[in-house]
Every structure is written in structure tokens, then in C-alpha cells.
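Section handout 9: paired folding examples.
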Amino acid sequence: MPLYDFPNQRVVNHLITDMPLRVSALRSLGAYHNVFATESFIDELAAAANADPVAFRIAHLKDPRAQAVIEAAAKKAGWKPGEKGTGSRGRGVAFAKYKNLSAYVAVVAEIEIDRSSGRIKVPHVVAVTDAGQIINPDGLANQIEGGVIQSTSWTLHEAVRFDRNGITSRDWSAYPILTMPEVPKVEVELIDRPSEKSLGSGEAAHGPTVAAIANAFANVTGKRLRDLPFDAARVKAALA
């Protein structure tokens, strides 16, 4: 459930109990996909209101801790109100509180688009998290960094391919992941709240990362990517 305070909301939950395929859990469970959807739409609402996406989010949140992580991420990233992408580079912002129970995370992602090949690169990501009282700062930062990198890999590359006979993506050429040269520079800032209980953070960065990348693409191109992963074919189709 989005944490934003809007006077009129209707959230529809589609539960499919008879699955055509045998599936298992993805890290972050539904948060990766749901935050991608909700935070993409929040950006669309901001655009419709002719509002800066950072200011729009802060204005529609009542939770001061949620507001604080967004403000801190924007400040650390040097966000300029109303900024637009230029040429092939753009930036996007996204926020979530994992399952509405765990850590708060705000992400600002920078992307580069090669319009001829359809490839997206993510050179730089800023992430700010509030996980309550911090017990192990290095461990917390590692969780957020790892979540950002794994989410970037999912977003740009990863998809299981299959046909009627079974899975066809059986090696790394058919199931590519993020390579070392593609890994973004990740800057993490932690907000310590010693008077608050510690919050889970292991899967909190995945949703905001994919949404920030998607919002960055819209920021620089004016087009929306609504299907994952953002591979070359989908990028070219969106740009066309």
C-alpha cells in the first residue's frame, strides 16, 4: 500500500491462485514489482501536476521519516528542482518503506542511454536509508549497496526464458547478469535513530532502485518503460 496521503484512493489487488507455471519467491517478494509500478505512477502524477518529483513526494507524505530520507537523497545527489535530462543522460528518484513495516529507502539513479544500441547504463546511484537504531553501520550499508546492484541487474538484464518444453535460459549467455564494468558507483547515507527500534533492511533497496531507473528514463526521454527488464528491444521500441 503506498504511503502517500491522497484524499481519494482505490487500490485493487489481483490474486491469482491457479498459476499456470510453478514459481518460487524472488528476493524482496512483491516489493520490486509493486514499488516499480507505484513509484512510476507517482512520477506521472507529479508530471501531470507540473511539479518536481522530489517536492511532490514530500508534499504528499505525512511521515516525517519518509520525508527525511527523500530530502537527504536529493541533497546528497545534488538534485535541482525541476531538473530535466539532457541528451542521453537523466536522473530519477523513488522511495519506499519496505512492506510498510521495515526500512525507509530513497534512491536517486543516474542513467545513460545509447539510443543506437538501446542499452541503458547506470553509472551512479545515491541511496539513503532509515532503519531505526543502527547496530552495524557497515552491515547496513552493505545490504543497501547489494540491493541496489542486484536490482540494477534485474532491471537491465535478467529474465528467465522458456518454451513449452521448459526453461531455455540455461547459461549466462541466455541469462545475462550485470557485469563488473556495468556496476554503478553506489553512495549510501545512513540516518541513525537511536531512540527508534531497528528495522529490517535486507530487501528494502530493490523497489526504489528499479523505480528510480525507470523514472530517470522518463526524465530524459519523455517515454515510459512498463515491462521488465529494460533490454535493448524494449528501449528501442519505447524510443520509436
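Moving on to protein 2 of 2.
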Amino acid sequence: MLRALIAAALVTTGLAAAAPQKSPRVLVGHSVRGRPIVAYERGDPTAPVTLVVGVIHGSEPAGLAVIRDLRTMPLPVGVHLWLVPSVNPDGLAAGTRQNAHGVDLNRNWPVRWKHNGKPWDGYYSGPRPMSEPENRAMRAFILKVKPALTIWYHQPLDEVYGSDPHVAVLKRYARLSGLPYHRLTAPPGAATRWERKRFPHGVHFVAEFPAGRISAATALRNARAVLALAPRAP
């Protein structure tokens, strides 16, 4: 009885964290080779959405460790997470930056898209905007969940970057995560360019880890930074 009263008091004061919970798995779509692209939902479904994407370039897997922590750690009251481990499961399985068509998925989105390179070039943008099934599935998913905050993990630049009107938020994430902030614009055809145009009042940015594996402490620090930035339910 006493434990229940204490828990109720913590919820009332906003100091409680939600207990760890099993996050439901949702199918977002499929890759070129038919691998599933999945998302996991956690937290308060009435709250604004925080979307976290672990991998878009298959050779940059460090963000998966942050996703693993966010799937299991206690959440603050009023936080709503959607977690996508990988938009590019074929590239992740093969260890390639590109998807199975040889396309850089972060140059294939429609805002300021421009044709660049050929298949398997480092920044090949694909034959046309949104030519790749992974991006079409992810676009439909994003339009459905309408994120107020999106963080896409990359490697190996060791920085948080962006130049949109929400620079203060990016700088706060940089301070909390330990990554330096640099004022850079997203490349043509980047996912964040499309998100910023489609959801201009939201905050959508890239966090780049250094090359190689990140430590458990780094993953946890970044997961905590995500939760610190996540918008709360009214």
C-alpha cells in the first residue's frame, strides 16, 4: 500500500519514470532483398513523437547500441518514442554504405535531390528521387507518425550537425552527448532535408559517431540525451 502511494505521488509531481516495457514491433516495409524494416513504439502515445533511426548507411552501425538502450531503459513520464534500428537492412547485412541497388539512401530523398554518380559510388543518389523501397516505406511511416523530433545516427564524422532554425536544440544534444556541434547544411537528397520541409516546426538532425564501435557508456549517454530532448505530453 505504501509503495503504491509513493508511486502515485511521484507521478503527480512528474518525477516518476515509466517502468521498462516490452516495445511492440511494427513492420515499416521491406528492403530491396525483402528484409523487414521494423519500428518499436514505447511510452505515452498521447505525447509528441520522438523518432530515432539507428542506421541508414549499412557500414555505420554504431547507432544500433543507442536503439538497444532506448528499447529497454526506463522512460520519463510523457515521452513517446518510435525506434527504427535500420532503414537499410541489406546494407547492414553486407557491411555496405549503400542498399542492395548500390544507392546511398541519404541522397535519395526528394528535397534538392540531384543525380550523382553511378551504382556503388559513395554518394550515388539513385536514378530518381525516392527510387528505393526502403525510403518509400520510411517516408510513409514518417508521414503517419509525424515526429516532432528526429535523430538519425551516422558515422564517422564525430559531430552533431545542422543549420536549421533549431540550432539551440542541436547544441544541447551536443553538450549532453559529448559530440561537438558544427553548423553544416545537410547534403542534397538527405532525409533530414525532406523532414524539415514536411514538418518545419519539428527538429530533425544528424548525430555522427566516430568510426568503429562505441562504448556502452557512450551509447547510454546518447540514449539519455535523446530522452532529455524528447518533447513531453502536455
